[in-house]
Amino acid sequence: MTVKHNMNTQPNLDEIHSRARAIKLLALDVDGVLTDGKLYFSNSGEEMKSFSTLDGQGIKLLQSSGVVVALITARSSQLVSNRASNLGIQYVLQGSENKLEALTGIMQKLALDFADVCYVGDDLPDLACIRKVALGVTVPNAHWLIKKMAFCCTTHGGGSGAVREVCDWILLAQGNFDDAVAEYF
User: Is 18-178 CATH 3.40.50.1000?
Assistant: First the structure.
């Protein structure tokens, strides 16, 4: 297999913003993007995950600007359902081994095409989505092939503000950042 990529260096913020202007749907992987990618289990077998409050605030701000947020994950967890509910995320697809199929289903419901979508992922199940959408993003802790194939990589790691960074890119690119944060001034 020969891996080719159309980008030699990380794009600058202007290039990222150029693609982010048209985004209507932000689709996110969970483990490794909204979390640090580690799976925590108690002695009794209870699963635990750690989510960043920065990411949560970014998601809320982005949704308030009219951008839809969706979660697509191969694993299934009540923790993810709870987090999505807390953030008002309507589209949550768990147990989705074929993430491109899951993403396409959401896009059809929303009457969107790939030019309207930003996808953030960190491992091989995310590759098809990252390559197909207008803004395919990954995180520094991603698999090397995903980093090579994504349009860009956040500076913050998964579970440590990476999603907030992407939300801010979209809000800034669409001219909605000031309105989104106005109530905090």
Answer: yes
